[in-house]
Amino acid sequence: MVSPVAAVTPSLRTAIERALGAEFAGADPVLRPSQYADVQVNAALALAKRAKRPPRDVAAAIVDALDLTRECSAVEVSGPGFINLTFRDSWLADLVSEQAADERLGVPTQPRQIVPIDYSAPNVAKEMHVGHLRTTVVGDALARTLEHLGHDVIRQNHIGDWGTPFGMLIEHLLDVGEDSPEAALLETDPNAFYQGAREKFDGDPEFATRSRARVVRLQAGDEATLAIWRRLIGLSTVYFNRIYTALDVTLTDADLAGESTYNDELAGICDELEAKGLATMSDGALCVFLPGFTGREGKPLPLIVRKSDGGYGYGTTDLATIRHRVRDLHADRVLYVVGAPQALHFRMVWQTARLAGWLPDDVEVVHVQIGNVLGEDRKILRTRSGAPLRLMSLIEEAVAKAGAHLDQARPDLPPAERDVIAAQVGVGAIKYADLSVAHDSEYVFDLDRMLALVGNTGPYLQYAATRVRSIFRGIDADPGHAQFAQAPITLAEPSERALALHLLDFGQVVAAVGDELEPHRLCTYLFELAQAFSAFYENCPVLKAEADTRASRLALCALTLRVLDGGLGLIGISTPDQM
Ligand code: ARG
Questions:
Q1: Which CATH number fits the domain that encloses residue 50?
Q2: What is the pLDDT of residues 59-74, one digit of tens each?
């Protein structure tokens, strides 16, 4: 099954070549939706210019050479050189029937690529903050979508689990005891545990000395120290997993590949860079100087791979990481869903890796840049005291608000069911608000707007899905039943036709999300689909229509539900049965 646009494109190509000559073979017509027809080809733009003929002549010549009698009810030259195409109702009806019969709903299966996706990546013993919310939610949407498109996605949760703070964290854990209430904070409020350690470190010189000695032992691979470090990581991952479960995110312990994973490779990375003549000593540190990277006053900007104290940094780990993803995971495409401020870091790491031969030209690496989440004051979202906002409390607040609304709206539902729906709606609202804006732009975190039942929100789309479900509940039928996937669809009313046209775009939109890595396109699509459905449902009686029309319209309803539900599923949002 292909979209109407994809279906007519080959005929248009042939007509362009026939009308304008062989040198136009392969010219790509651009088809856009138009208010005068279903789609419009702008022949005036590139084609007429290249053909050196008046745009209207070019459009007329293409129309003469065009055979779309099966697909179109009208093909017209319009304006200064447009070709307007109106699809035949019966042809659209056949396409949409085909889509309903297709388990994949028209979503293509792409040639399989191996795609490691680096996302979420919180830091151990520190609260996951709203910045991590976005990389988690966007990364998970991309992982689900690319998997559905047929790719082999390898989730890589590059948690911050190594570095100098671990000396003080380990000493603090030893001081308070592993069974103490303070240690329990690691699973509930890791930031508080971190703050406790930090305060002691700053105020107690003896503790600071012990902590420094502990880092040295940790880095030297002292087994007793490593054992405590492992328990610290274990407690922290309990916390991460609570957030992932609450957010309905697909990451598991099997996807953990934190910074420490690469410890044993860092010395070798440095040696190899030196041997290849790529790294040089500068002020006691081993550095890579790359052409084109300069800092203030044009001074060359180094990527430091070994600090003057012998320690390795974030850049060294990321060099080992990219090498691992290419060499061991056999990546075709690597995605880094990470905050926008790290763009320079990644460019330097990748360029170094290319020069070192660890990143061949045919492996694509992409930084999916994540923009800031802002408070109402348009500054990075923080609590009143200025501390970064706890992610868990945001989730809890959203679920509580959704629950309060449900208590009012649906007192008839059993409380346990209301709790399940509140979680779906509250979490769906946060995730959708995050996904519906371009991942690299900022947005203001406003729970009330996110939870609104009107506008481009998660709850609006979830509600649209429950509305369709209630039609089927009313006739005691399962919308997933094969009967609705196989009923012949006919299109007569304009709003019914508009709904079908929109449904037919699904596959192409999902493919574009995978290609361009832009989940917000799917959000826009689903929002417009819900609106098209609303218009259809207002204008076209379903259950009261006569038998054939009723069967056809029920099939359209069922297909709409499958697309809404499937589309939201691809971005990690579930739809309640009712709300
Ligand atoms: N832990 C880092 C942070 O919180 C993000 C890590 C991103 N991934 C990577 N390979 N560097 O900012």
A1: 3.30.1360.70
A2: 999 999 999 999 999 9
* 158 close to ligand 1 (CB < 6 Angstrom): yes
- The domain spanning residue 335 has which CATH number? 3.40.50
Q: What's the pLDDT tens digit per position in 118-169?
A: 999 999 877 787 888 999 999 999 999 999 999 999 999 999 999 889 999 9
Which atom of ligand 1 has the smallest separation from the CA of 345?
11
Q: What is the pTM of this model?
A: 0.95
Nearest Cα residue to 507 out of 102, 54, 233, 76? 102
Q: Are 54 and 48 in contact (CB under 8 A)?
A: yes
Question: E strands within 375-506?
Answer: 443-444
Mean pLDDT of 294-319: 92
CB-ligand 1 contact for 316 (6 Å cutoff): no
| Interval between CA 334 and ligand 1 midpoint (Å) | 14
Ligand 1 in contact with 255 (CB < 6 A)? no
Minimum-distance ligand 1 atom for the alpha carbon of 123: 1
In this structure, the answer to whether residues 272 and 356 fall within a common structural domain is: yes
Whole-angstrom distance, CA of residue 509 vs CA of residue 530? 15
Q: List the alpha helices (DSSP H) in 519-577.
A: 520-539, 547-570
Cα-to-centroid distance, 311 and ligand 1 (Å): 18
**Closest Cα to atom 2 of ligand 1:** 121
Number of domains the chain contains: 3
Instruction: Identify the domain containing residue 64 by its residue range.
Output: 4-87
pLDDT (tens digit, 9 = 90+) per residue, 387-409? 767 888 899 999 999 999 999 99
Pocket of ligand 1 contains residue 334 by CB under 6 Å: no
